[in-house]
Specification:
Blueprint lengths: L3 E4 L2 E2 L3 E3 L28 H11 L4 E5 H4 L24 E5 L4 E5 L5 E5 L3 H11 L5 E5 L1 H9 L5 E7 L7 E2 L12 E10 L4 E9 L1
Parallel strand pairs: 1-8, 1-9, 2-9, 4-5, 4-8, 5-7
Antiparallel strand pairs: 3-10, 6-7, 9-12, 11-12
Amino acid sequence: MADTTCHMSISLDGFVAGPDQSREHPLGKRGRELHGWHLGDERANEADATAARRLLRPRGAYVMGRNMFGPIRGEWGESDWKGWWGDEPPYHHPVVVLTHHPRPPLEMAGGTTFHFVDETVERAVARAFGLAGGQDVRLGGGVSVVQACLREGLVDEMHVPVVPTILGAGERLFDNLDALRRAPYGYECVDFRPSARVAHVVLARVAR
């Protein structure tokens, strides 16, 4: 059965992105520090390689928020922004982008098509599964999308690499989740692999 999966590297103080996202800082200021383990850090080891394979394994479709797609806010206007990734994004599958300003689909090289929709996360995830051809759907972020999916019990598996750094500000992952205390489901650790650079934690949704 296909699952909804999520990957979010996180700092010791709970942030998955730094503050002040911009074209110069796609992950917010200092946000890139959370991703060295899979972006060429010489201290990376087999635990990191295993986690990177989990991160990069093919999915059938993706869901992300408007802020994950780019730094432009409000109406699109005359913007020619097509994402952070150049002419051939790394997804190679459909990507559903949640936005209050829907627009026609954007087809890119390599099989990626961005679908811009103004819908609830439940409908966006359902739409992604409809495009996924029976494969998993991955939540690409950002924080508000993942939090909404957690509150609705839509996340089956989370890979949370805990990076030993303190950002002090930015986008905090595990805020605004009071609804989980009353939910008939929770999350438990099903895999834990430490490396020299990061502690890889995999959480799976379980019934209470």
